[in-house]
Design brief:
Radius of gyration: 21 Å
Number of strands: 3
Distance between the termini: 63 Å
Order of helices and strands: EHHEHHHEHHHHH
Structural class: mainly alpha
Strand order of the largest sheet: 2-1-3
Largest sheet: 3 strands, mixed
Number of helices: 10
């Protein structure tokens, strides 16, 4: 099968190598994490949408992040769960399904960076220019920023996957938990120089823009806090920025490891674990760090729980 060139065929996904003794515990743990991610993120979106008091730029932008987390987790986790319970020799997927899966996987990864960039800008304006914040972060501006974050991701990822889909292929094994762009063009025996150049350029531009934007905005926030004598505001800003940066660094490192180790087959299992961390840790922490930490959302949630307890 590997010596033939074919198109739109059935592919075999390697998936995570799990021993028979750890299959059930791994499945249950991942299922519980998936349930928490879906309930917390969707619940946060519903809460923000239903409460007019929360229709503020910061929370609207946060909805972009929760939506992206739900998208990325839904694309990734159910397939991993299915593969855990499936014999390694029967983990099949069609080429079309694989291409669609790869597209949404990279859309999730790209949107994670673009959305966090606009959230960092929002925090910078709110902390460094609080008096001008309502005039700058208008509803129209929030819509434009959100559209730009998703539009850039849709276009860049569309080009990325299109370059891989156009290739004929002579291999049938996806070397990962799920399909991604690198796994797709590795199926081909054609020259993939164009794919490598675009993929490298795309990754470098995205990471440099993301790191640069986050580093610059948070550095300016730190400078403002250092110069300010308002201890209460400084404490709140430091607490918010430090927790945001923690999630961002986890996402950045796990994403970088996943991309980097594609070039080293010897560390395939490490790359698969990094992929799982990338798709479950940030989506699990985001509702807590960006949502529960917010005084307004925290009060709404506590009020909801009190009402339910009183009703009983």
């Amino acid at each position: 099968m590997d010596n033939q060139t074919f198109q739109y065929s059935i592919l075999l996904v390697e998936g995570l190598q799990v021993t028979s003794q750890s299959t059930l515990p791994t499945f249950i743990l991942l299922l519980m994490v998936y349930a928490f991610i879906m309930v917390s993120n969707i619940g946060m979106m519903i809460q923000i949408s239903a409460d007019k008091c929360l229709h503020q730029p910061m929370y609207v932008l946060f909805c972009n992040l929760t939506l992206n987390d739900v998208l990325g987790t839904t694309v990734f986790v159910p397939h991993v769960l299915r593969n855990i319970l499936t014999d390694p020799s029967e983990r099949y997927i069609t080429f079309v399904e694989c291409a669609i899966q790869a597209y949404f996987t990279h859309l999730n990864g790209t949107a994670s960076h673009t959305v966090i960039m606009i959230m960092a800008i929002d925090r910078y304006v709110a902390i460094c220019n609080p008096l001008r914040y309502p005039a700058i972060m208008t509803s129209n501006m929030v819509v434009k920023l959100s559209a730009a974050a998703w539009g850039v991701a849709v276009v860049l990822v569309g080009i990325l996957i299109s370059l891989s889909v156009r290739l004929s292929h002579c291999r049938s094994v996806i070397q990962g938990n799920i399909c991604d762009n690198a796994s797709l063009f590795k199926l081909s025996c054609e020259n993939t120089v164009v794919n490598n150049i675009y993929g490298l350029t795309y990754t470098v531009v995205l990471f440099v823009s993301s790191i640069g934007c986050v580093a610059l905005t948070y550095l300016k926030i730190a400078i403002i806090c250092f110069k300010s004598k308002n201890k209460a505001r400084n404490s709140k800003a430091v607490k918010t920025c430090s927790t945001h940066l923690t999630v961002y660094i986890i996402m950045l490192i796990s994403g970088s490891v996943t991309i980097f180790l594609h070039r080293f087959p010897l560390y395939a299992e490490t790359r698969k674990l990094a992929g799982i961390i990338l798709h479950v840790i940030p989506p699990s922490l985001n509702p807590i760090i960006y949502g529960i930490q917010s005084k307004e959302i925290r009060q709404k949630i506590f009020k909801l729980f009190r009402n339910q307890v009183n009703a009983k």
